[in-house]
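Feature request, filed as a ticket because there's no other form

It would be nice if the structure record came with a short human-readable summary line next to the tokens. Right now we just get the raw output. Example of a typical job, pasted below so the devs can see what we mean:
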Amino acid sequence: MSNASKRSRFWVMAAVATALVAATAAAGDPAAGQQEASLLDLSSTLTLPILEGQAVATCFSDFNIAANPSSGLATDSPVVALVDVRDPKAFPISPGQNWGADIFHNDASSQKWNALNLGQVFGITLDGESPPNVYVAASTTYGLFRSPSGPVPGMLGLTGGAGTVYRLDGVTGAILPYAHLPNGNAGSADLVGPGLGDVAYHREHDQFFVTNFEDGLIYRLPGPATNPSLPVSWIGSPFNHCQALGRPYSDGGIMSAAYSSHSPSGNSGFARLGCRPWAVETFEGRLYYSVWANDARNDGRSDPNEIYSIGISSVDGSLVGQPVLEVSLGQTLTKGSGPSLAFYSSPISDLAFAADGRMLISERTMSNSDVGPNLVSASVGHRSRVLELSGASQGWDVANPKIYHVGAASIAPITQPPLTVGALSVRANAEGGADYGFETFQYVAGQPVAERACDESVWATGEQLLGPSNALVYGLAGLPPSGNTFGTATNVYAIDLNNNLTVLDKSRIGDVEVFRRSCKPPCGRIIDVELTCVTDRPGGIFVQVTIVNETPDDIVHVFLSNLPAGVFAPFGDHLDFSADPIVPGETVTISFSLVGLLPGSAASFQLSLHNENLERCCSIPVTIDIPTCDCGQLLDSSLTCIAGAPPSYDLSFLWQHLAGVTGAHLFVVPSPGQNLTVTPAVFNQSLVYGQTLSGTVSISGPDAVPGARICLLFSTHDERFRECCSVEQCFTLPGTDFCVFPPDDP
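Raw output as currently delivered:
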């Protein structure tokens, strides 16, 4: 069946459904004018598996009667959709029109992707399997719907709770609870407390990262490649953003007053604004995550909504190092006027990266309340943007974003830094999801996705996508890579996600993910990383990285690049494999030394792989957690025998401080079991990494005899004795033939 015939049948079904509703209303039905919330695409022939270029999206189920919460949640309405966004010109359809793209909700199965089975979900991602499976996260983003007796039907899935991540099988569409995070209080209304934020898959370590609105933590889940038993447990200790920044994690600063895991009132609290991560995505060996600090309700806060990143260990996939502030969006939107004028911004709910490093940001307009007996976190509309930033980690060009105008409604001009764009108004009707897609605007109808340019369109969730002529088109907006023009919808492909152009779906659209695995072909996969301390150089580490060549080329050259400031490779940053090239599929260990690394910190760099003529290349991000080797070392020492009965010995030394914290005290004492006296035992001098201290101690006692082997502990401490370590150094005492007489007393 041709695409055109499929679309024709789709529109006939939609027209019939709309006509039936109109006829019922005309006949005097008491529900006249109260349109059902969803008209499903029953004619679509789209099915699984997901193909390159197709999109998956989440949405709110809506209510049984549109805009009428008292009618209950529409449990049979879809909350996840597979949408074929690949070939608009094959319909044919032109930008500026509502496109009846094929949509799939697994309707033919008993496990429909609806609110009954899944509850309300927002965050969405795909794994690395072939074909990929879909993962969605339980959410209270659209609102928190509960009653005194328990969760409202359709709020939570049949097999999950407020902290559940679901897997939708990539072949059958079957629903399985993949993980249950510790949200909600089972058996009470509190079960529908704060949900999850976002979920992202990290291919390099076959793992997921999930943000949690209730406790403000980021969880790490094992991926499907190891065929884990379901539901999986999270890996290690969850990451705490505010603790990592040294902010107190207490009711006084981080959590709302009602929060205490589950408060006595039976209502869980949301993690406090400023300590509530939302969007997560991985790129070049780092986890990027947004922090929800401000929104349309809390415009009195000075904290901006921000994006941070933290290293992902190449050894085990854990988060290492300290969070780094990458982007601060400031408070660039206005609310009220005159004395009531306030500035704020909407929280960042989704992140995506193009293969060439561009960062795509989507906001979602939220009105948050984290106090009082009815803790809610509700969506509103028309105050959220889709922005694209160029640059790289710690160098994003926030002052010159590319703006993607989403929807028809306009907001006041942006006049506040750092997103000042003159007097340009912004179509800011994003609904919180955005991803890159394949070329949609400049291609031949029916051209295979594999032959089209990657990351050359943007798909965003939004509201009022087409303006007055089609005012109720809410769903997916396909935008050209160059951005689009304010004030017109003629260069936007619009897809109404529920095929209902008579109902206002404001704040009811969720997240979107495009299957585009081929946009960044595999380069090399890290199998193992081993680190060995090099004691003859400060901050020296011998690194062995075992990789698999996943390119189609023989690798002849490997370069170390983007090393941290002050770090260098003493034996060169180019490894030549011309004598024995690394063939496709081969596993090889690449070894090199690095100098200048700070113990206890994390370091990130790139291994770039090249063919013989350096005409084809790719790179592997490497992040290592620098081990704390010896906290110091003796660069020089000398022993002098002082004649006497018995003799004593003077040890002169040059100590180099190699700990990651500032040292303030150096102790020199005998090792356990040594019957010695060492004076002085304490040296007070502030030492930062790499600095030295020279000193002399006198050694005496029963074990201080000529020719004896003695051992001393050199122990360094910070100013308040909270951090300490020691290094044992052993010496052979010289014989009496080398003794010198002490100077005569004056």
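Something like this underneath would help us a lot:
The two ends are 112 Å apart (CA to CA).
The chain has a mean pLDDT of 82.
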